[in-house]
């Protein structure tokens, strides 16, 4: 029987039905989202991930906190380091990094019932197409606009605002999940044009590579006009490609997307003043790509700046700044140093 709270949440649920939700790739995003769903007694939430995460959650429990002071505890959680129990799931939230998708596909095909919707929550573009090519299941996209960081063992913190942008769909189990998120104070915005949402998020994610190349904390990097000039140029390339593709990218900041490059080029004192609360970032925070480089992991570069280069080729234009950034990340991934900022600006043809 559904709890009273769950009945409110589940506009689309059928009384008596207990949906089983699989969080596949339980890391920062997966644990953060999954802990919200655990608050709904009408959901059976199963976390799938690494043995190390299973041990961490068993020892410390799972809790989430948020910049807007919501705290939830979800313990004990059902955590699986093998994917066999995927067969029970009615919806999958796929929260591995984009680089882990290909090996994950074989597993999904092996264990998932074919009618079960898979919601891909990665940053980057080309994800839905890639999954659709290999998977018989319905594939949906959702874009997470905020940052989630692990504060300490078992505790995941949402560091910024924004609603999860979720592809409109008519899968009742998925819509139940969306209502449950809303019920437990995680905003969700339904979106008919998910391509616009993906393209808009990519515009912001172009800085992930620059942050990794700079090897600086995010705040320090953004307060250096030289790095902002490069970011503005990378954004300009992507906005031009979007216009060629006939896509108007969704704006995730109060400024219209077209003004972002102009805004970034402002002198630092003006930029700092105008950016105001946008710069309310932890002084030590870095992009996840920077973390990946530091942990010697493969980055998501080919789904971000690499996708810009690929799309440019498709439209028979070039994206030299994004190509330069991809090259630098490849160097870092193979243990070499990236070029210094002045040389990057010179190669990009930018004057300070
Ligand atoms: N974190 C954020 O703030 C944020 C915000 C917006 C969007 N995103 C996007 O969300 C996606 C997930 O990011 P995240 O930060 O949550 O990544 P994450 O913390 O690395 O979580 C992914 C987890 O999945 C595990 N995994 C990978 N392959 C697996 C497999 N075959 N079986 C079991 N577990 C597996 C990973 O383990 P290993 O590390 O051992 O492989 C990791 O624990 C990315 O595309 C990212 O761009 C993240």
Describe the fold and architecture.
- This is 2-dehydropantoate 2-reductase.
- One of its GO terms (biological process) is pantothenate biosynthetic process.
- Its EC number is 1.1.1.169.
- The chain is of the alpha/beta class and 352 residues long.
- It folds into two domains: 189 residues, Rossmann fold, CATH 3.40.50; 153 residues, N-(1-d-carboxylethyl)-l-norvaline Dehydrogenase, domain 2 (Orthogonal Bundle), CATH 1.10.1040.
- Helices cover 44% and strands 14% of the residues.
- It contains 15 helices and twelve strands.
- Strands 5-2-1-6-7-8-11-12 form an eight-stranded mixed beta sheet, with helices on both faces. Strands 4-3-10-9 form a four-stranded mixed beta sheet.
- Helix 7 crosses helix 12 and helix 9 packs parallel to helix 13.
- The longest helix is centred in the middle third of the chain and has 21 residues.
- The radius of gyration is 21 Å and the shape is globular.
- The termini are far apart.
- The N terminus is likely disordered.
- The site of NADP nicotinamide-adenine-dinucleotide phosphate has 24 residues, from helix 2 and helix 4.
Search tags:
352 residues; alpha/beta; Rossmann fold; N-(1-d-carboxylethyl)-l-norvaline Dehydrogenase, domain 2; 8-stranded mixed sheet; 4-stranded mixed sheet; 15 helices; binds NADP nicotinamide-adenine-dinucleotide phosphate
């Amino acid at each position: 029987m559904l709890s009273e709270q769950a009945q409110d949440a589940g506009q689309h649920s059928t009384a008596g039905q207990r949906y089983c939700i699989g969080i596949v790739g339980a890391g920062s995003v997966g644990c953060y989202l999954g802990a919200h769903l655990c608050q709904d007694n009408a959901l059976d939430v199963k976390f799938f991930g690494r043995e190390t995460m299973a041990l961490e959650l068993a020892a410390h429990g799972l809790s989430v906190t948020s910049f807007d002071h919501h705290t939830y505890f979800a313990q004990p959680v059902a955590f699986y380091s093998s994917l066999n129990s995927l067969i029970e799931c009615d919806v999958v939230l796929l929260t591995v990094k984009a680089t882990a998708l290909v090996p994950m596909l074989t597993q999904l095909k092996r264990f998932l019932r074919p009618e079960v919707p898979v919601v891909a929550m990665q940053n980057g573009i080309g994800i839905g197409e890639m999954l659709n090519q290999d998977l018989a299941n319905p594939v949906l996209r959702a874009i997470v606009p905020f940052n989630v960081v692990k504060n300490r063992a078992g505790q995941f913190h949402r560091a910024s605002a924004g609603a999860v942008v979720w592809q409109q769909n008519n899968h009742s189990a998925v819509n139940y999940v969306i209502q449950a998120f809303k019920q437990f104070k995680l905003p969700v915005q339904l979106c008919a044009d998910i391509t616009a949402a993906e393209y808009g998020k990519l515009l912001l994610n172009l800085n992930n590579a620059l942050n990794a190349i700079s090897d600086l904390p995010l705040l320090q990097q953004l307060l250096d006009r030289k790095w902002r000039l490069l970011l503005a140029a990378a954004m300009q390339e992507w906005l031009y490609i979007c216009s060629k593709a006939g896509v108007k990218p969704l704006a995730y900041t109060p400024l219209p997307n077209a003004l972002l490059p102009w805004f970034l080029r402002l002198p630092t004192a003006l930029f700092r003043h105008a950016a105001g609360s946008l710069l309310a970032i932890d002084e030590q925070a870095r992009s996840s790509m920077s973390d990946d480089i530091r942990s010697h992991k493969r980055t998501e570069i080919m789904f971000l700046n690499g996708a810009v280069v690929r799309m440019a080729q498709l439209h028979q234009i070039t994206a030299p700044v994004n190509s330069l950034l991809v090259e630098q990340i490849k160097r870092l991934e193979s243990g070499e140093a990236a070029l210094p900022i002045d040389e990057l600006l010179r190669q990009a043809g930018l004057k300070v």
